[in-house]
């Protein structure tokens, strides 16, 4: 075949892959930062700004492994060897079917899995092309992925529960919880950096080969680097936290690395209930004045651009959730503030992990079509993923989060269980440990499953099963179940409509 006869398919897959990445960002990235925003650690604007960087880096530096699984690990692409253009069409229709479903689900506030969606779409397309025999149903294909859907939330829930229970009994429940928390923070900093540095080194940069070291050596090197970072956190960061939170000193962020060497800073007076009430009243009056003020053309443009980050998503005043939130035990406020800062780091790790794993959902079909368009041949089992493919889809993820991610953050938020900084950080760290490991072995697990399982696991640590919003969990689980057949049906119908349409001779 002359692949450039089908340049229009390459252009279409570019558009549809970006749309799929957009839906991925709007739906799945909310999972990475929902706990941080719902606990009040980050504002929605701050979460979006951080995620734009971490999602892009995770996708660009670690995204190629799972892209290979998505593109060639689900169906037997050798059946398309005599008609590579048919595989181009199939992958184009698959990513269109996936994007349509994920964006629609996001508009309804349903936290679905983009991994489920693209997997179902590719299966549906392959069945429409060559029947059920063209799909790799065994453990080297679909069964392996399906297994991960059930195993990943369980593993993430167990890991997050262990992290929170250790924190609960070693730190939160003690009378000197703040002092213990200062000692624990550097340990968590060490763990978060250790995991991510290990996989960055072992995976290698896009377009290059991973370093030829044993995994044991890689773990040792990353451990040494992370230990150094943890030591710095103990010397500088913990001291900065003690002075800022316990001593109420006006410590700026840039003072972290000079905190042991500078004198006492001005003391910030404690905020009273009257101060909070007065601030709220002033804020309400200012908001009312802004609302009544006629909008200029520039104001209208700014409102449209920043609509995605100017949303309320925490659900703290929802009366239907009051009983669920009341069942969660509350801990010392100053100690919880310690975990606000560490939760930012774990949120970054979770977002980095999401980018590394879920960018494959859009990149896999794109890389397959791109290679066929270049060579005119069906690629082998391992598709070489171009760096620009990763960057292109990573940008789509960022745009989706910034403009439409608030829908799912609002749907999750505090809806599953009451979230505090200590609980949120445990859920996020457990999720990142699960997902980055899956990314390393090329297993496309679902971020939705992992973070939901982690939140449920942490919620059960309250010792009261009614501290979980089981209705919300049921809706979420149902959305997982229906995603694969719906996306598969959409993709299969689209492919059949195009491939089997009459041709004018």
UniProtKB/TrEMBL annotation:
GO molecular function: phosphate transmembrane transporter activity
Membrane topology: Multi-pass membrane protein
Coiled coil location: none
Primary localisation category: membrane
Cited Pfam families: PHO4 (PF01384)
Residue stretches spanning the membrane: 86-106, 149-171, 183-206, 218-241, 475-500
Keywords in alphabetical order: Membrane, Phosphate transport, Signal, Transmembrane, Transmembrane helix, Transport
GO cellular component: membrane
Biological process annotations from GO: phosphate ion transmembrane transport
Location(s), subcellular: Membrane
Signal peptide: 1-21
Protein family according to the UniProt entry: Belongs to the inorganic phosphate transporter (PiT) (TC 2.A.20) family.
Function noted in UniProt: Sodium-phosphate symporter.
Protein name per Swiss-Prot or TrEMBL: Phosphate transporter
Organism: Smittium mucronatum
């Amino acid at each position: 075949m002359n692949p450039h006869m089908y340049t229009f398919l390459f252009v279409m897959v570019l558009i549809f892959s970006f749309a799929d990445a957009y839906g991925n960002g709007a739906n799945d990235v909310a999972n990475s930062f929902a706990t941080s925003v719902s606990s009040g650690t980050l504002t929605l604007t701050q979460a979006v700004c951080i995620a734009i960087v971490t999602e892009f880096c995770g996708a660009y530096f670690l995204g190629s492994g799972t892209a290979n699984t998505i593109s060639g690990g689900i169906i037997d692409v050798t059946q398309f060897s005599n008609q590579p253009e048919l595989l181009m069409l199939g992958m184009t229709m698959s990513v269109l079917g996936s994007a349509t479903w994920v964006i629609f689900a996001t508009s309804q506030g349903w936290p679905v899995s983009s991994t489920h969606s693209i997997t179902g779409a590719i299966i549906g397309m392959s069945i429409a092309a060559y029947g059920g025999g063209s799909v790799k149903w065994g453990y080297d294909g679909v069964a392996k992925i399906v297994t991960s859907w059930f195993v990943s939330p369980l593993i993430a829930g167990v890991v997050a529960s262990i992290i929170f229970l250790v924190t609960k009994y070693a730190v939160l429940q003690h009378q000197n919880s703040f002092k213990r928390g200062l000692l624990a923070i550097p340990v968590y900093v060490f763990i978060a950096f250790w995991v991510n540095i290990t996989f960055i080194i072992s995976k290698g940069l896009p377009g290059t080969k991973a370093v030829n070291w044993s995994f044991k050596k890689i773990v040792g090197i990353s451990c040494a680097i992370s230990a150094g970072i943890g030591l710095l956190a103990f010397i500088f960061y913990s001291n900065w936290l003690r002075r800022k939170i316990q001593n109420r000193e006006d410590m700026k962020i840039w003072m972290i690395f000079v905190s042991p060497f500078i004198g006492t800073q001005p003391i910030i007076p404690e905020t009273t209930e009257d101060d909070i009430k007065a601030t709220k009243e002033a804020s309400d009056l200012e908001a009312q004045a802004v609302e009544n003020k006629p909008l200029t053309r520039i104001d209208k443009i700014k409102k449209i651009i920043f609509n995605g980050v100017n949303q309320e998503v925490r659900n703290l005043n929802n009366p239907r959730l009051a009983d669920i939130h009341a069942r969660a035990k509350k801990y010392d406020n100053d100690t919880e503030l310690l975990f606000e800062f560490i939760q930012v780091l774990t949120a970054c790790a979770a977002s980095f992990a999401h980018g590394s794993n879920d960018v494959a959902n859009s990149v896999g079909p794109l890389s397959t079509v791109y290679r066929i368009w270049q060579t005119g041949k069906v690629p082998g089992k391992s598709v070489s993923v171009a760096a620009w493919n990763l960057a292109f889809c990573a940008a789509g993820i960022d745009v989706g989060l910034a403009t439409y991610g608030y829908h799912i953050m609002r749907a999750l938020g505090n809806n599953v269980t009451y979230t505090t900084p200590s609980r949120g950080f445990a859920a996020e760290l457990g999720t990142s440990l699960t997902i980055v490991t899956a990314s390393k072995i090329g297993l496309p697990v679902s971020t939705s499953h992992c973070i939901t399982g982690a939140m449920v696991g942490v919620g059960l640590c309250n010792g009261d099963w009614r501290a979980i919003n089981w209705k919300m969990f049921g809706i979420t689980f149902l959305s997982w179940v229906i995603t694969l057949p719906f996306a598969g049906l959409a993709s299969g119908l689209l492919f059949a409509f195009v491939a089997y349409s009459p041709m004018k001779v």
